[in-house]
């Protein structure tokens, strides 16, 4: 799939998303570490749900080090309000552990004064970070121009024709930062995020499908499709047949073994009678 009008599509998706969602501004007084950890929670969840869970973490634990040493199981329970609470807990814990092992401190605000490219590379080396969390951190903590794209948003960009299938597999979104100016980056990023979360959560939602078709009327063939009832029935029958075949084969094998045993017993019996006969 070629994308000759990529910039026009990006401009259109921005216009359409503003009709359906409200931009969300990040909390400006967060530290660099807090922005990074917030991104670990936000990646596939709604902003409001993330705000609630993040606030709960800050209230329930003494500091980030206590969260670092707590069990993943406990974190999952504390973060159950997120759409992907389990994965978010793993990202959060892994990131905290990696930060501690790399810096022996949770004060990362010195990165604000470093060269942006070097800072980004340093954060990319941390375990637990993802392309989404790095982009979110770059945009909101390091004053860079990078638009965070979660799984659902990436899929939506493919459906409307902004990225190709090959680009989506590599998690590449060429032209996104060129088409959206830095002054609109936070607004666009929050709008795209909301679409991505809803799309990942309910890919067959009529509302989401209507939004995607409003952006690109020719996107119908690229929309996710439900498995047909006929295909599901065939699959179910195949699975049932597959389960029955071994049982039938086992029964046949047992029957054959039993028959062979009886034949052997008759042969041995005849031989014994022959040898035991008084005439031999």
Question: Explain this structure to me?
Answer:
This protein has helices at 6-20, 32-42, 47-60, 64-69, 72-78, 85-103, 116-124, 131-140, 151-159, 165-169, 176-179, 185-201, 206-215, 229-276. By secondary structure, the protein is mostly helical. The longest helix has 48 residues, at 229-276. Helix 2 runs antiparallel to helix 6, helix 2 packs across helix 8 (131-140) and helix 9 crosses helix 12 (185-201). The termini are far apart. Helix content is 66%, strand content 0%.
Radius of gyration over alpha carbons?
30 Å
Q: From N to C, what is the helix and strand string? A: HHHHHHHHHHHHHH
Strand content: under 5%
Helix residue percentage = 55-70%
The total count of strands amounts to 0
| Structural classification | mainly alpha
The separation of the N and C termini measures 91 Å
Q: What is the general shape?
A: globular
User: What is the overall number of helices?
Assistant: 14
**Largest β sheet strand count, sense and barrel closure:** none
User: What value does the average pLDDT take?
Assistant: 88
- Extract low-pLDDT stretches: 268-280
Features:
280 residues; 14 helices; 66% helix; mainly alpha; globular
Question: Topology, pairings included?
Answer:
Blueprint: H1 6-20, H2 32-42, H3 47-60, H4 64-69, H5 72-78, H6 85-103, H7 116-124, H8 131-140, H9 151-159, H10 165-169, H11 176-179, H12 185-201, H13 206-215, H14 229-276
Helix pairs in contact: 2-6, 2-8, 5-6, 9-12
Kindly summarize this structure in a few lines:
With 280 residues, the chain is an all-alpha fold. It is built from 14 helices and no strands.
């Amino acid at each position: 799939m070629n994308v000759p009008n990529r910039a026009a599509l990006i401009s259109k998706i921005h216009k359409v998303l503003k009709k359906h969602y409200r931009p969300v501004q990040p909390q400006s007084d967060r530290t660099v570490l807090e922005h990074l950890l917030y991104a670990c929670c936000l990646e596939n969840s709604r902003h409001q749900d993330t705000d609630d869970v993040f606030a709960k973490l800050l209230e329930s634990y003494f500091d980030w080090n206590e969260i670092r040493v707590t069990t993943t199981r406990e974190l999952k329970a504390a973060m159950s309000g997120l759409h992907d609470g389990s994965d978010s807990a793993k990202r959060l814990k892994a990131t905290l552990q990696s930060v501690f092992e790399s810096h022996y401190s949770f004060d990362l605000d010195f990165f604000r004064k470093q060269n942006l490219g070097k800072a980004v590379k340093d954060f990319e080396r941390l375990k637990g970070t993802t392309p989404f969390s790095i982009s979110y951190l770059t945009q909101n903590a390091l004053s860079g121009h990078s638009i965070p794209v979660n799984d659902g948003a990436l899929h939506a960009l493919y459906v409307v024709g902004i990225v190709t299938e090959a680009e989506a597999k590599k998690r590449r979104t060429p032209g996104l930062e060129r088409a959206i100016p830095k002054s609109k980056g936070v607004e666009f990023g929050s709008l795209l995020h909301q679409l991505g979360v809803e799309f990942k959560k309910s890919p067959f939602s009529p509302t989401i499908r209507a939004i995607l078709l409003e952006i690109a009327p020719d996107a119908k063939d690229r929309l996710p499709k439900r498995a047909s009832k006929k295909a599901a029935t065939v699959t179910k029958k195949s699975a049932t047949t597959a389960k029955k075949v071994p049982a039938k084969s086992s029964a046949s094998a047992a029957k054959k073994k039993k028959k062979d045993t009886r034949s052997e017993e008759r042969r041995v019996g005849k031989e014994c009678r022959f040898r035991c006969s008084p005439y031999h």
